[in-house]
Amino acid sequence: NYDDRTPAANQLLLYSNKHEDNTDVITTSGGDPVGMKTASETVGYHGPTLMQDWILLDELAHFSRERIPERVVHAKGAGAFGYFEVTHDITRYTAATVFSNIGKKTPIAVRFSQVAGERGYPDTYRDIRGFAIKFYAEDGIWDLVGNNSPIFFVNDAINFPSFIHALKRNPVTNIRPDYDAFFDFVSLRAESTHMVLMMFTDRGIPASYRQMHGYGANTFSFINAKGEFFYCKFHYLSDQGVASLTQADADRIAGVVPDYHVEDLYNAIESGKYPSWTFYVQIMTPQQAAANKYDPFDDTKVWLHGDYPLIPVGRFVLNKNPSNYFADVEQMAYNVANIIPGIDFSPDRMLQGRTFNYADTHRYRLGVNNTQLAVNAPPSMIHNFNRDGFATIKSQGGAPNYFPNSFNGPRNDPRAKALYPSIPLSAHTQRTDNGSEDNFTQAGLLWTRVLKEDEKQRTIDNMVNWLKQTNKVIAERAIRNFDQVDISLGSRLRQSLQLQFHLTTQVEL
Ligand code: HEM
């Protein structure tokens, strides 16, 4: 009886039921009919296989090329499609077409992910979750590549590869986490304290992708039709509410249903329980940014909601599963540099680094023509002067491949020119480490004002689970950062850790 099984478990059966009248024949990848799929072509029964057995060679050669490089981060994930709908007018801040009028709908693709693990990684390990949205806007693609956290570990792109190396596998042992590397790096870069604390709260293991919020985290800018610009942050809050797994449940599930989140999302959408999120922005004027107490372009800090309230904008719904994971999700390419007129970048150093890195990794992972793949292509045609390269799909209809030209090729867009935020800048070039700004006040607010006692205790337990596997000099250095967040946090960590060391290795801190 298949009735009590999930849509994911029944995928093949559902296919079969829908295709009862299927008359397709097997073909080679050239589309030529195949008469016998289960035997190689041999010389006699025991003779060697023939070179001319194209049916065999075609399949073997394709098979050994099935994998492409996985994402260097965020490799494990799940995707779905749906739409974004405007519910509130924010045209006083931005002229972006996706927000042009209440009721306006824009198709979207969303990919959820884990940061640290590889493509087969269990969904319920403690980690930050990626939450990226591709808007197929009428004037091009807007990729909002966020996480389930409003902040990040580091605030200068130059520190990102090192942070990821410390989080991922040890290059000698191939084991992760390497607790020494992780706590060494984060204790030496105190700006990560806020995010490390958040990662060990319940937020570090969501119950499902549907039950977590998303955040753009970096600071962007908006430009309105009058050419005025504002800084902004994006928040998308789950209409399903937020829920997390305990460490014990997560550990158990990892061994039993490693694709727990992927399965949950697929089944929810397939059963018509479409998850949705309410979309908000925070707005900061350039004048407010200049006078703000903390750096508004530092993504290890939130913009306090009391000062910069959440302004409702819209809602998005996921109502369609991918038809093929590889084609639609593995090949999805989110690029922070994909913005539409009315939305722009900011001096946020992480965002600046990100504007380079995504398209670069896509060229490596998917090839130079990745934006021509169906899942990445904008609804409007791509009109530019790039041509050729591996897997060219679109030819741009014979338009000139150079600019300027006298042959009616594509031209500059006056609207995009007008919506450019021209920011007055003047300063000496420099390399100034921004890791020593106030790194502890906001982490202190998280600890003292946001976390309730039961979650505080779980946060201590979760962190000590990692700290106890760390060399004690590094553990002590890490705890000294938490002393500065709040003395009760540091001392509770120290106490709990001493107990753990006592129980396991008899080492005193
Ligand atoms: C994926 C780099 C910071 C969210 C990636 C990928 C790279 C990358 C190379 C793989 C992309 C692919 O293969 O398609 C960087 C760099 C950063 C940075 C250099 C800092 C300088 C961040 C931050 C966030 C974030 C701050 C969240 C606010 C994501 C997400 C994905 C991703 C969600 C997965 C996208 C997908 O689902 O395909 N990042 N990242 N990253 N990054 Fe970042």
UniProtKB/TrEMBL annotation:
SMART domains: Catalase (SM01060)
One Pfam match: Catalase
Cofactor(s) required for function per UniProt: heme
Top-level taxonomic group: Eukaryota
Known catalytic reactions: 2 H2O2 = O2 + 2 H2O
Domain Catalase core: 27-411
Keywords, ordered alphabetically: Heme, Hydrogen peroxide, Iron, Metal-binding, Oxidoreductase, Peroxidase
Top enzyme class: oxidoreductase
GO CC annotation: mitochondrion; peroxisome
GO molecular function: catalase activity; heme binding; metal ion binding
Residues holding heme: Y358
Role of this protein: Catalyzes the degradation of hydrogen peroxide (H(2)O(2)) generated by peroxisomal oxidases to water and oxygen, thereby protecting cells from the toxic effects of hydrogen peroxide.
Protein name (record): Catalase
Provenance organism: Sitophilus oryzae (Rice weevil)
Gene: LOC115886053
